[in-house]
Amino acid sequence: MARMKFLCDADRCIECNACVTACKNEHEIPWGINRRRVVTLNDGKPGERSVSMACMHCTDAPCAAVCPVNCFYTTADAVVLHSKDLCIGCGYCFYACPFGAPQYPKVGNFGSRGKMDKCTFCAGGPEADGSKEEYEKYGANRLAEGKLPLCAEMCSTKSLLAGDGDVIAQIYKERVSRRGYGSGAWGWQTAYHETIAT
Amino acid sequence: MARLSAAIRTIAGVLAFCCVMAFAAPAPTLAQDNPNASAVKEQQLLNQLKVIQGRGTIPDAKSYVLEHPAGRDWRYFHTVTLKWIGGVSILGMLALLILFYLWRGRIPIEEGRSGRKITRFTGFERFVHWLTASTFVILGITGLNITFGRALILPWLGPNAFSAWSEWAKYSHNYLSFAFTLGVVLMFLMWIGQNFPTAADVEWLKRGGGMFTKKHGGHPPAYKFNAGQKLLYWFVVLGGGAMMVTGYVLMFPFYGGLTVGNMELAEIFHGIVGVVFVAMILAHIYIGTLGMEGAFESMGEGTVDVNWAKEHHPLWVDEALAEQRDPKGPGLVTSTPAE
To answer: Do A86 and B64 make contact, defined as CB atoms within 8 angstroms?
Structure first.
């Protein structure tokens, strides 16, 4: 099994937000929840870069470590998923997450945040693959259909890469050596405790 | 001739342009070669700021934080440090209490019961105490569940039942906090007059409250509250206050521009004060029930035996008796009629 990862080539991202829209549409995400987002650094200044960010499906995921009800699990593809049936909406995973990935359907008055929602790497949840229940709770399960996450598939500049970590690292390395520069794999050190030498 | 000079001028001009370009060109070419020269670097930003923040296009301002690796430190606190602090303080306190009980036994009323009762706590005082106490027990258990439940209860309750229980525990924790807050505020106002330190407290503390001697008359005198009770009072008021502030921050997350770092800090304070609070209250429960003869009835019925009062709070008894002799004062001491 592959070790699935995301990689955003910040030198290519044009902040078009197609990944965000693709994600929202594919999984019918309600208003107020953003499984994926684009953050622009140094906006309007020389050296501005945009990075598309979602759950990075960390190695030894912090969300899973702090969850008081142990609702997270890691698939054979190293995708970090969770069970909305077990989630109690305490909000701790958001405090532990280095990438701000966990989202809650309610604002949080009196601790009623609702069930946490986050990027599933288009891999659904614990329900049967492709079932109606799975779709309603977690969105589409593209991985079970042999497809990769839609955000990366739809990326207009192929900045966002999703798939086998070794393969996308190789693609990124080749890009960097061809064009002669690269600002690195954002978030990899934090998420996977490794980075791509460029 | 004119044509020739024009041609020379053109050639000279082109040459001059080329010369200028030859000198001027390298700089822009270099910049184009590396458009990354001024680009933001992840590691540099993390080293400088500990958090990478930018601009986003969705209303949720929290989402503008791109990376916040400090979540890892908080994770370590929550999964390791807090468990140690909680385990050591709560189990340590239980162990101390058991050792103390084995050595000292139940502290008796040395003179035996006199049969005469003196009013120690009014109905309102007892109501406030039990309001605070009952909510504290629930808050304590449901709070400990968040930190220790996954390791201690989940394995034998199973994931579904444990989640159901934890969700109810969370709601009880959140909603009962208001009753607890009311209790602590009333307690603060009700007893503050009797909880300022006095000279008697210094003496009481020097002698360890008479707890560590078995000889008769070892009890240092105290007013209505002894130094230990005063310390507990101030811990409940200040620690309870800290629990309320951090608890409401956690209950209303990110209000008023709080960042994820602030939320983590609130959880750290809430966790540490919480487990120490539980440990302190364990000692309080012990000495108020099992550990001392004649103590529980003060909060149970509101009256205590006069001999108990004279042994533990003689200065308060003097005050109470002085009020008793005052015709305008309330009748505090009552005798059980002879049968």
So the answer is: no
